[in-house]
């Protein structure tokens, strides 16, 4: 059996608690260090208002483009571990967080599992994700 196929994956990063820039940096570094994974490009960092109507601080958001051999489930587990490393505690949906690491697109895959939907269901509703995807598009020329 040959090496695993490498797929292009867009991952959104967000933080609105603590040292937001440091949390994004931790996420970029940790994603780039995953086995069989290369960080190809990163969007600009953008400050955005929180979603969901809760009173909370603004977010720093960024998207990265990865190329990975990891399957979606393994990447999801890695993203959740990275969130935990940054002190993320899941309490309230749409609540404040030290770090949010979301798989937005995974190649051309479409998945609908209870805890993993690809493409991310909120993609059409987040203008900042649209801007970040557009910024990264020139770097997405398919697997090498």
- SS field, number of helical segments: 3
Rg, rounded, reads: 15 Å
End-to-end CA span: 19 Å
Based on helices, strands and strand pairing, what is the structural class? Answer: alpha+beta
SSE order in H/E notation?
Answer: EHEEEHEEEH
Helix-residue proportion = 25-40%
Find the count of extended strands (DSSP E, 2+ residues). 7
Quick one: overall form? Answer: globular
Unreliable sequence segments: none
Summarize the main sheet: 5 strands, antiparallel
Proportion of beta-strand residues? 25-35%
Average of pLDDT: 90
Structural description of this entry:
There is one protein chain. With 144 residues, this protein is of the alpha+beta class. It contains 3 helices and 7 strands, in the order βαβββαβββα. Strands 1, 2, 3, 4 and 5 form a 5-stranded antiparallel sheet that branches. It has a two-stranded antiparallel sheet with strand order 6-7. The protein is globular.
Task: State the gist of this model.
The chain has helices at residues 20-32, 72-85, 127-136, and strands spanning 7-15, 37-42, 46-48, 59-68, 100-106, 111-113, 116-118.
């Amino acid at each position: 059996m040959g090496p695993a196929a490498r797929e292009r994956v867009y991952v959104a990063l967000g933080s609105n608690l603590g040292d937001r820039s440091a949390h994004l940096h931790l996420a970029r570094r940790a994603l780039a260090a995953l086995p069989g994974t290369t960080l190809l490009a990163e969007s600009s960092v953008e400050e955005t208002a929180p979603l969901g109507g809760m009173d909370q601080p603004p977010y720093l958001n960024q998207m990265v483009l990865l190329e990975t051999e990891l399957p979606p489930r393994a990447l999801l587990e890695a993203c959740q571990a990275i969130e935990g490393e940054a002190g993320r505690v899941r309490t309230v949906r749409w609540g404040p967080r030290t770090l949010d690491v979301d798989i937005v697109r995974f190649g051309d895959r479409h998945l609908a599992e209870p805890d993993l939907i690809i493409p991310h269901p909120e993609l059409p509703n987040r203008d900042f994700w649209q801007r970040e995807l557009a910024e990264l598009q020139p770097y997405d020329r398919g697997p090498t």
